[in-house]
Write a structure and sequence with these properties.
The structure holds 2 protein chains of 2 kinds. Chain A is an alpha+beta fold. Chain A is built from 5 helices and 11 strands. The N and C termini of chain A lie far apart (64 Å). The relative contact order of chain B is 0.14. Classes of the chains: A alpha+beta, B mainly alpha.
């Protein structure tokens, strides 16, 4: 086992070997770079099998597909007693809703897919919440209103939708996700859900909605992202 | 007990600079990646900046060590890691075969680590600049960067086990800390290696 006194049976012919390392190196680099073209499709195909196993083995992994992105130093903390949603701007009757009043509004449920502009996707998310009209309507928007300004408690995160975009059938103000109250990382207690647009338009930690004449750049648009963030048709995708 | 030199000062510095950058990137990367850490720690923009600039400095620091240190020695080591002889192939198939200064597993680990480093830097730069220029935005960049992290983490676990825990191999740790290993150990594990 131990002593290798004379390792080479033919000392005259020294085996210098073949340069395999550079092949492995280049092959790995080429395979990795090429995965920029097929990686997401491949992962989408196997993630249905891999993710549940990974989630059981290592529960802290984001196996369900969700990542938590934030812009402020600390995520806002939801306090049921003090939380308010205010509706203002170009309206006749500004409103303030507390959490109990929010839950009393007509409840709707929907299952939709969430796409992040950075490439990850979560399918079949079960949302529950309220339609925007049920929240905005009582405030009586004035003539000339053309857009909504969604303001997050996480400063300086905000974004805009045109009224037309906000009226899409599956746009929701969600307070539940997958059967549980919205968690802190997902924007507790209330977030905007607009499945046809990338995640950055789905403002989390909502604390104010202002009715405004027209859209402006929100937080991410000021950093170069598209105002109309249609999934697959914006931000350089599907151009 | 007599000792033989396994790693030069340059090689050890190269290793530990790489390790320091890798661990900083691993920790900041985990905060960015794991939802529980993100919620607990927050400060995403700060962590992201630290992660990005550490990643950019990583290859620069390694290049600096290589340029300022013993370049010829590093080249010789690289050539050594590159070449696989018949004993290396035998060793890789699980049979007993005498090994040189590096066994075939160490050669593969070094090669893969180098390739992963290149891919980390490329995909990391694409993530960063893809946020600023849609032409550099690919839907698969984040899949690649995450996949690399898992691959590198697996290699790291194996590396740490062999270097710190496995009784037969952990003596090798001496080589990368103080530079030398016992002659008897070298003879037993790296029979074809003749230290200079």
């Amino acid at each position: 086992m131990s002593d290798e006194t004379h390792p080479d049976p033919e000392p005259a012919r020294v085996d210098h070997g073949v340069p395999v390392g550079r092949g492995v190196f280049l092959g790995t680099v080429v395979a990795g770079v090429s995965s920029l073209l097929w990686g997401k499709a491949a992962w989408d195909r196997v993630s249905g099998t891999v993710a549940p196993v990974a989630e059981r083995l290592v529960p802290v992994l984001p196996s369900s597909g969700w990542r938590i992105y934030s812009v402020a130093a600390h995520l806002p903390t939801f306090d049921r007693a003090t939380w308010r949603l205010s509706i203002g701007g170009h309206v006749d009757r500004p409103q303030t809703l507390d959490y109990a009043a929010l839950l009393e509004l007509p409840r709707v449920e929907q299952v939709s897919t969430f796409h992040c502009v950075t490439g990850w996707t979560v399918r079949n998310v079960r949302w529950a919440g309220v339609r925007i009209n049920d929240v905005i309507g009582p405030a009586k928007p004035r003539a000339g209103a053309g857009a909504l300004h969604f303001v997050s408690a996480e400063k300086p995160y905000d974004d805009y939708l045109t009224l037309q975009q906000a009226q899409l059938a599956d746009v929701l103000l969600a307070y539940e996700m997958d059967g549980k109250p919205l968690s802190r990382g997902h924007g507790a207690p209330l977030r905007l859900v607009i499945p046809d647009m990338y995640g950055y338009k789905n403002v989390k930690w909502l604390e104010r909605i202002d009715v405004v004449p027209r859209v402006h750049d929100g937080y991410w648009e000021a950093l170069g992202y598209d105002r109309d963030a249609w999934v697959g048709h914006s931000n350089g995708y599907g151009a | 007990m007599s000792y033989v030199r396994r790693f030069s000062r340059t090689e050890r510095l190269f290793h530990w600079v790489n390790a320091a950058f890798f661990f900083t990137l691993l920790v900041t990367g985990l905060v960015l990646y794991l939802p529980s850490l993100e919620v607990a720690f927050g400060r995403r923009t700060l962590v992201k900046d630290v992660h990005f600039w550490t990643g950019v400095s990583w290859p620069c620091a390694l290049l600096l060590v290589a340029l300022a240190g013993d370049r010829r020695g590093l080249r010789r080591t690289a050539a050594d890691l590159d070449r696989f002889d018949r004993d290396d192939f035998r060793w890789l198939t699980g049979r007993h075969a005498p090994q040189g200064r590096f066994n075939a597993g160490q050669k593969l680990n070094a090669t893969l680590t180098a390739a992963l480093t290149v891919l980390f830097v490329v995909s990391g730069l694409l993530l960063w600049f893809g946020e600023r220029d849609t032409r550099l935005r690919f839907a698969s960049t984040v899949v690649l960067h995450d996949g690399l992290a898992f691959a590198a983490f697996a290699l790291l676990l194996g590396h740490l086990y062999l270097a710190l825990i496995h009784p037969a191999t952990r003596h090798a740790l001496r080589g990368i800390t103080v530079g030398s290993v016992s002659e008897e150990w070298a003879h037993r594990h790296h029979g074809k290696w003749s230290p200079d």
